Each structure stands twice: as C-alpha cells, then as structure tokens.
Amino acid sequence: MPPTLPAHDVVLLGIGHTNAHILRMWRMQPIPNARLTCVSNHPTATYSGMLPGVLAGQYPPETMEIDLVRLCAAAGARLIIGNVVGLNRDRHELLFDDRPPLPFDVISIGIGSEPTRAGLEAADETSLPIKPMQTFLERLEARLLASGRREPQGGAAAAFRITIAGGGVGGVEIAFCLPHRLRTILPDRPCELTLITADDRLVPGAAVGTARRVQRELEAHGVKLVLGRRVVRSAGGIVSLDDGQTLQANLVLWATSAAAPPLLGKLGLPTDDRAFLLTKPTLQSTADPAIFAVGDSGTIDGERLPKAGVYAVRQGPVLWENVQRVLQGSRLVEYRPQRGFLKLINTGDDGAIGEYKGFSFAGRWAWRLKDRIDRKFMAMYQDYTPMPVGRASARPANEPEAQMRCAGCGGKIAGSVLARALARLEIPTHESVLVGLAQPDDVAILQPRAGKQLAVTTDFFAAPLDDPYLVGRLAALNAASDVLAKGAQPVAALAIATLPEGAENQQEQLLYELLAGGLAELRVMGATIVGGHTIEGPQMTIGYTVLAEQSGPLRAKGNLRPGDALVLTKSLGTGVLLAAHMQARLKAAWWQPLLDSMLRSNQPAAEVLAEFGVLAATDVTGFGLAGHLLEMLRASRVAAKLWIEAIPLLPGAGELLPDGLQSTLAPANSTVEDEMDVSGCDRQAAGYAALFDPQTCGGLLIGVARARAGELCQKLQANGDAAACMIGEVVVESSPRCRLIVS
C-alpha cells in the first residue's frame, strides 16, 4: 500500500512529563491514521527531579535530559523547534512567529510554569530564574564566572553570596545541592547561601515534621534562612525584603512558586485566577474539546492542586487514552488526582528527607530509593531505539483500500488543491517576470534586464526531514546554490513537488508549507515563484528550477590556476548527520548546528567573492567535497593538495564517521579514490570519510590567489560564514591518476 497522508494531526505543545508520555507511547504503538507533531522551543526536555543531583555532582547533566531530536525520530514523530505566539481556535491552528500556522485535530498544551515574580518591583542581571531548566546550568555557570571575575584580585577572597528565593521543594533542594557546583566553578571562593521564602515555614504542603527536618538539615549545612519575608527588589547586588531589610548578594536564584508562562494568556482560552488554563476532569479545555492542558499548564475546574510533577506524571496515561477517544468520537475518561504521594528531598550528601502519608523519614536509604525511582523514570524516555517500520497501519483496519491511483497526467495534484495553496501565499512580483503566477498561464515569460544573460539550473531531492516548511526552505537554498556559486542573481523559480496521496485539505496544507518555506528563502534572494508542477508519488520530494541573471564574469569550475588556495565556506557532515537522524542517532546538541549550516544561504558568501574577483568556484553538494573538487581539477587540468586536518566538520560528524555510519550515496562518491593519492593520510580519520559525504545545502569551494586567501577567509567569517577556512592549494598536474593529493 503506498504511503498516504494521515487523516488526523495530533500536536504536543511542550514536552513536559505528561506530553512526554504521549511521545513514549507513540514510539511503541502510534495511533493509526494519525501524525504526531511535537513543538518545543528547545531540542531537549529536562527532568526537574534530577537537577539537584546534577548540581550535587551525583549525575552528569545528560542523565536528566530527554533528547527530543532522537526520541521523536525513534517514534516517527515530527519535531518543530520554534516560538509559538498564539492559537487560532476557529481554524484549530497553532501560530508561530516565523513560520506558517500548524493545523491540529487534537492538541495537548504542556509548557509547564515559571517562578513567580509577584511583588517584585525590580530585578537586574544578577537575578537568575531556574527555568527554562534546559539552559539553567549554562546560565548559572556564566553568571558565576562573570561575577567571580568582577571581584578584586589579591588578598583573601571575599565570600560569594547567593540568595535563593523560594522555600518549596525546588528551592530547598537547590540550597542543599548547589554548594558542590559552586566549589567546582569557583574553587577559591568561599560561598554563603541564604534562602528566603514568603511562607512561615519551609516546604509548604508537607507535614510539620518534614518541614522541621528540612529546616534543621539546612541549618546544619550552613544555610541562612529568612522565613515569612518576600523579595521586593533585587538590583545592584542588594536584595530588599518587604520588611525593609536588605541583604548583599552576588547572585539571586528564583525558585519561587509556580506562575503561568505569558504564552498561556495569549491562547484565548479560559484560565483560573492564576492564569493557568482551565480544564475539565478529562483534561480538556473548558472551551474546546480538541484542546487539552496538562501538567502545570492546566487547572482542573474546582480543584486546587499544587503544581507538582507527580500530578503531571499521573496524567500521562489519562491523556493518552483521551487523545485516542477524541479521534474515535467516544466518551472520555476523567483524571482523578491522588490525594497523597511520596515526597523525597535530595540533601546533596547522598542522603534524602522523605514523607509518605504524613510520616517523615530521612537517611541514605531514602536517597537510594529516590535515585532508583528517578533512574527508572528517565530510562523510559532515554531509549531511542527506533521501533519497527510498519507497526501501525496508515489506515484504520476497518477502512477499505483506496482505489488504485492513476499515473501519467492523471497523477497530478488536483487543480483545486494547487489553486488554494497558491492563494495562501503572498508571491512577490518581479520586474523581469512578464507572465507569472499573477496572471497564470501555461508558461512563464521572463525578460532579462539589458546586458544580462540568463543562467538556469534545477535541483530537487526527497525530503530529508519531516517538517515541510523547513524542507521547502532547504530545497530553495539547495537549488539556488549553483547559480549563486557562478555569480548569478536569482530572479525566478519553478517549483517541482511530489506529494503523497491523501485528502485534498491535507495535500493543500502540505503543498502550502513546502512552497511557503521555499518562498521565504527566495524572497531574501530577491526572487519569486513563477510556476511549477506537482504530482502524486510514493515519497515527498521538492525542488526548484532557478532562473538567474548573469552579468559579471562567470565563476567557472575550469578557472583554477596553480598557486591558488582552496577555500571552503561551510563545515562538512550534513550527509552522515541526516543519516544518523533517520536512525534516531542524531543528538540534540548536533541538531541546531546542522540546521544552522544547511539554512545558511550561499548568497552572502557569493557577494564577498565578487569583491575579491574570484573566478573559480562551485558548490559542494551531493557528490561530496572530493567529487566536486575533482570536477574543478579535471576542468582546469591541474592537481591539488588537500590538508585533511584543516577540513572543518559539523558537531557530531567527527563522532559518527569513524563509527562507520555513512549516507547511502557515500560509497558511490568514494569511487573517485582512483584519482587520489592518499598515501600520506590516515584513511580512518573522520576528515577522510567526510570527503565523500554528500552535502545538503553545502558551502562553496573557492579557488583564490594565495596572497588573498587569508583576507578572504577573514571577510567570509566576519560576514557570517564562521567555518570558512583554507583547506588546500592548487598545484601543477603531474599525473591524472593522482590529481588530488590528500595529506
């Protein structure tokens, strides 16, 4: 059965404890005929229960992280890293600041909470909220080092004073565990900790005996406690309290009680008196049955539960059941909050304080219990093994097979789909376009400006990612790269798209997102879309025929000269990283650098080349660096020496390539070894394997006079191509059988 577009879209906004359960269950058994999209502003999710242990040196940071890039890939779910700005309830669309709206049939909102700043009149850069937790360690270290450098040198080091605002479990655990982190980062500075809470006792909601244990233990650790006071100002190293008292502080950490993130107020949904989304016991918004609010983000109407992770965890199975029931149109189940639960507080010294059903206890055994529970919980979300393909049918079992689809011209996308998708795009006009989409016809007609020649190229690919807007951007950049390398200015483009079969509204949305992504990049280049062709097929593909005006000298492959330096503008490794992504092996830390590199247009670099009078250049794409360099060497009838250690690699490529992972095209690319002399290099090195790695939206390979190579690299780097560097030199050809010397 050919691939089809799913009938239903399930969207998770934020991947906290509850929504993470949906992603985990989807990996094991996805809902038939549905697609899951995870939306987050960060490629990892952090388990707050293990943050204190990381501060105390009991765990490495990765122990508390869920790698969303890998987990989504393993689950076959789409991951969108972006900034959400609102919700269109009428159209059931999630709104972003820089991409098209995302439609949904069901959405679960679980973006958590943030520390409240109620009553705070002013705060400067010395105040540091613990959320977003994904960046807390990085922000903490930067502030500690910056504050430490400001202290005068010489003599006895002054104490580094830290104030923690908030006396709940989070603030208390930080007070217990932070000293270890401080000793690691500022080993020569004594530290003083003060914990301030507006409550009359610590850990509100806990039994009196538990609160007393916590207070005694904190005092034994040398933590100064200020109870029943609220911070009203934190600026200039001075913390002011609501009773007029002041304290000195180099850093103030905010771990106060939960407040609603501002985004919740922009969604147009009913909220409680604290601005959290109001829900029914089924976890659905009181305003819309297709919208769920979970974890800290939601408040069940009539309940007054504390914002605690244990509730979010218990909501997971209920949400999973109800998402399926909404799609099936059946009656939903209710979440019934537990009235008591185990509390375990990390004291940072391999001990813990606990409470269960009002009974308080402490000891190393309590820490071992907490450690076992936390590790077991995280293990469920850190298994990134892809599940077998085909474990869930694209169609429900009771739905009959669709009629066999026609090929030939009968396989085109419906004209109504195309018309609606184009109508949603704001396609710019261009002075060189006489007939385009503004007055659709069977052909586009262009009139190059006087003195200009017309350069034409075409390129398309099977979608390397599952985000159509992102894929559309990449396709436009990839297709335009050839003409940019030659010094031409893109004017217009014809789109080429293959879409899986599906309902018209689904094909329309997919085509719209693909073209919107491409148009976004073409606009930046000063070009527009003038037409194209769409067809149904087994795999989503997208590309463009790009028409460009060529006015200056052609930067040809055959213009290399002995003595030229070889300059590369981008790091290598997109092929192996995309291959890793298909196997759920692409780590979150590698995700953004990969996207940043692929989405970096070659247009700025091409403009710099014009300033230097460069006449030899090409873009590095599917045939890899070795393949494209050899094309230049053959055309120029020269040879080159390549310095393998100078070749820049994207984060992760240096780890994956020596491990034997490679793109499917890499073995074919390596057949050019017949023209290479590799006797002087380590063929097991990552840099050597990278020579044959096919690049999607790769950089430019440039030949420039050696005397100007350093200046060119500096200008490219200053202009945004940070990886630009010299990787070799052109020499006189001695034998076509060793045209490329790698050392």
Strand content: 15-25%
CATH domain topology of the largest domain: FAD/NAD(P)-binding domain
The helix tally amounts to 19
How many beta-strand elements? 39
Rg of Cα set: 29 Å
Write down the overall mean pLDDT. 90
Query: SS-based structural class?
Result: alpha/beta
CATH superfamily of the largest domain: FAD/NAD(P)-binding domain
Sheet with the most strands, sense and barrel status = 7 strands, mixed
Explain the overall architecture.
This protein is α/β, with parallel strands linked by helices and 743 residues long. The protein has 4 domains: 225 residues, FAD/NAD(P)-binding domain; 138 residues, 3-Layer(bba) Sandwich (FAD/NAD(P)-binding domain); 143 residues, 60s Ribosomal Protein L30, Chain: A (2-Layer Sandwich), CATH 3.30.1330; 186 residues, Alpha-Beta Complex (Phosphoribosyl-aminoimidazole Synthetase, Chain A, domain 2), CATH 3.90.650.10. The chain is 30% helix and 24% strand. Helix 1 crosses helix 7, helix 9 packs across helix 11 and helix 10 runs parallel beside helix 11. The longest helix is centred in the C-terminal third of the chain and has 22 residues. 47% of the residues are buried.
